[in-house]
User: Fold Ig-like domain-containing protein from Sparus aurata.
Amino acid sequence: MFLALLFTCLNPTGRILLLTQTVVVHSEGKLLHFFLLAAQTQLIGSHQPIVALVGDDVLLPCHLEPAVSTVVWTRPGLIPEYIHHHQDGRLLFETQNPSYSLRTRLFMDELPRGNVSMKIFRVKISDAGKYFCNVLSIEEESSIQLIVGAVSTPFIEVVTNNSEHVVLQCESTGWYPEPEVFWLDGEGNLLSAGPTETVRGPDDLYTVSSRVTVEKRHNNSFTCRVQQNSTNQIRETHIHVPGRESVLRGLYRMLTDFFLFILLLSFHFC
Assistant:
């Protein structure tokens, strides 16, 4: 007589264990054979957030051991929540959220090897959030956090310029999430600046501006740094402000040239 028993359990590592136990029993009730087959099904995602910039393509990694034929990528909170529903070799367009239409794909050649990663093309601000890689046949899922950022290069202009001080303004448009602005001197030391002005546009992108007043010294170099910590993005712009001595030397040279010109002109008419 043969007895086949199927057990499903979850081990401490989070892997699903499928245990098939086959017992062969002699007609007299004596145990003749014991066989145990263990198969592990593991869904592997990313424990670290995935960072992408607006307009870039991004890969959300997910790997299954062993491979299956049906994979569903979802994002809770959307209606419908299906981002990519792959079943029996094709994408089910009718269930896909329209905001992701023609912007997602799986790697068909890699599916037999368990690679169920999803690629999103032309990333948008609205794509930021938590995604779930689902394998319906084993009721298992893996979550991945996508962080989307936008950056731009700051621009520095001279607002006020007198003999003693210079007021500099730094502005940068098109950031997400909201960044911070710092001023540094030529040696990399932070400068005390006024409060940063922040404006959020209808496209959810931020424009930031900051002003700093600096003294005119010899070989003054200043840096405006705009950075966003969650996306680990930094953009910088540098400016050189002539020192007071350089300005005086330039003025002296200009006056000297002017008087020489007047002197030569007077000799010409004599």
Q: What stands out?
A: The helical segments are 244-269.
